[in-house]
Amino acid sequence: MSKLIHLSDLHFGKDRPDLLEPLLTCVNELDPALVAISGDFTQRARDSQFEDAHNFISMINAPVLGVPGNHDVLLDRPFKRLFLPWRGYKKWINPDLTPQFENDTMIVVGVNSVDRFSWQTGRLSPARIKHACTAMSDAPHGKARVLVVHHPLEHPAETKKKPIPGAEQALEKLLGCGANLILSGHLHTWHAGNFTVKSNGTKAVQLHAGTSLSLRVRGEPNDFNVIDISDDHITIERYSFNEESRLFETAEARQFSRTSEIISD
């Protein structure tokens, strides 16, 4: 069994400093095999914000795998956004925009969904999808295949944000390559459920984290996900911040089979 922690939308520059210590304490006490961060490390892609994110990552005891979010490229400096979109991210977070992690239980593949030309909605190019599929296909049979991407490939009906163009087709290809679990953020709301691809019925667990540190919440407390992956099951616990205890605590839990059928909540 492997334990994976999923953080998202830290938004340094628009964060809650009072949550840093309780978040780090909880994450390190849980002792995961990996911490995955699905983008938006910063609010406006400033060096000072990236430096704060870098310092935060350095205090996590476990390995960290991250992907960029749309806030990690400059919105208000068009020249740099078009010609040097990843400068800050590569300097402070990771020069690799599509990182991978593998152990005996799982392979985790980062997918970059950020597009310098479509700042809000993002984009999954054929090359990015192919890279993720190759990584998953190369993994030994029986390992869980986990994707980390900033933009969700399905949106809840109530969200006002536009989905990635071509998301349905991208999702069908990724599930066809064997993805069992897709971690995302962007919406600042929590969700755990099944993707269903109509053409063949293939399913995988979709898991959106809210925001772990940002002030920009959507009627939900700051949260993160704890995922236990076994040979047969994926168990998800949502940890949210309790303003009274000043701690991140278990708020709800769900369990899925590795074929993604929900079996308890």
From TrEMBL:
Record has Metal-binding as a keyword: yes
Calcineurin-like phosphoesterase domain residues: 3-189
Annotated organism of origin: marine sediment metagenome
Coiled-coil spans in chain: none
Gene Ontology molecular function, alphabetical: hydrolase activity; metal ion binding
Pfam families: Metallophos
Similarity section: Belongs to the cyclic nucleotide phosphodiesterase class-III family.
InterPro entries found in the cross-reference section: Calcineurin-like_PHP (IPR004843), CNP_phosphodiesterase-III (IPR050884), Metallo-depent_PP-like (IPR029052)
Protein name from the UniProt record: Calcineurin-like phosphoesterase domain-containing protein
Keyword annotations: Hydrolase, Iron, Metal-binding
